[in-house]
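Researcher: I'd like a structural prediction for the single chain below. Treat it as a standalone chain; there are no partners to consider.
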Amino acid sequence: MDKRYDVIIIGSGAGGGTLARQLAPSGKNILILERGDWLRREAENWDAEAVFEQNRYVSPETWYDRHGRAFQPQVHYFVGGATKLFGAALYRLRREDFGELRHHDGISPAWPITYEELEPYYTRAEQMYHVHGLRDRDPTDPPASAPYPCEPLSNEPRIQQLFEDLTAAGYHPFPAPCAVMINERNMAYSTCIRCRTCDGFPCLVHAKADAEVVAVRPALEFPNVTLLRNAKALRLETNADGTAIAEVIAEVGGEREAFRGDIVVVSCGAANTAKLLLMSANDKHPNGLANGSDQVGRNYMFHNSQAVLALSRERNPTMFQKTIALNDFYFGMDGFEYPMGNIQMIGKSLGPMYRGEKSLETALLPMRLLDDIARHALDFWLSTEDLPDPENRVTVDSAGNLTLSYTPNNQVPKQKLYEKLKSMLGRLGMHPGYLIPRNIYMKTDIPVAGCAHQAGTCRFGTDPKSSVLDPNCKAHELDNLYLVDTSFFVSIGAVNPSLTAIANAIRVGDHLLHRLA
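Model: Treating it as a single chain, here is the predicted structure.
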């Protein structure tokens, strides 16, 4: 194999996979290194017990919390990265999220780019990922240069009733932006069959617009793009002056191999990207690559998230539930002046998901009772912004063990959002006062295990003293090193981070095309 490339991309998820697709038509010689393999298409893809109880698609690796306690992170290593099991919710950050925002616990800092600079790339990202939605129904919706490429998903009867009840109560529900390849006007020719096993599941029929399906596979249609699977990057070696990456050292088939590229792009996820840079310390970069600011690994964020279910007075036979959302309290409410966050529907709960939590309560309940709860459940995901804190960080010891130190912050608005939704239930056809935690993404007792929305650790900015990357996501200290996963985030907002990572990867791709021309 030729081991000299124009561009080496480490990771094939929302950032790396998208970048590969963006660069593929250039004719440049591109290598994608992916530590995982294709996610196998099998009946277990849609088996709730296999996915949630047996953790079939979760990496068995071990991380450690700030007290040294081991935990299993909810991470997925496959071609397509975390998008293989994501909920396909592709939201834009709000325009205000790019500026400085005062929160209950402090300041969410401004980004070095504006919403207007990223907006054209949001539009291109939505087009690449087949996003369904409708503009101007959400009062916090930022301006957009084009409509969504696909019409909004229809609501099934119980969700339509919820939509109408919310509207009648004076709220502003809107169609949730969703990345699935569905043709509701002609379902006989639709890839998506609108099943219950989407959010948190792999898609057996490749109807979810994940990075493998819409980015990596199309990129591989170009002869200049090579994907090397089961290739785990171990460290980055610099030239003698320490000014550029000379080689990527990876483990392939149990053997170490070196790969050389003119441009090296890291997209391993916020935690693992920081780990790779820290593990690549050398004489010129004794604290880790690109870490002259001591910011690599710091400011880890992953949202103050709550998965909850409300019990409907009537049965909820909905198959595809994730079709509406609510941002009325994103920036606060009467009596509380600080941002609270986003409320959205999530995938329909099933009995085995509750068992997957392995709590004493569900362990003692018969499955038929759990199934009955699921039949009456409406499931919500509440996201509140957690603020960047330099002490919330990733560190690595000499043996390569990753420690994720995290102390929660901004908890009051999280509780306010929960209480507000709970207070609304009686007017929404649900049993008032019953809003039950359903932390299906955080099975263990350690909250940091649920890292689906991980971000930060290598923030971008204009000042090399306080940031790792410049506004083009190039490392300040290395001429040919770029990062395109969510590690570049300065703040996380209160919506799913995937679309912002995708849009930024396209933006960085345009920069690299100009540089490589």
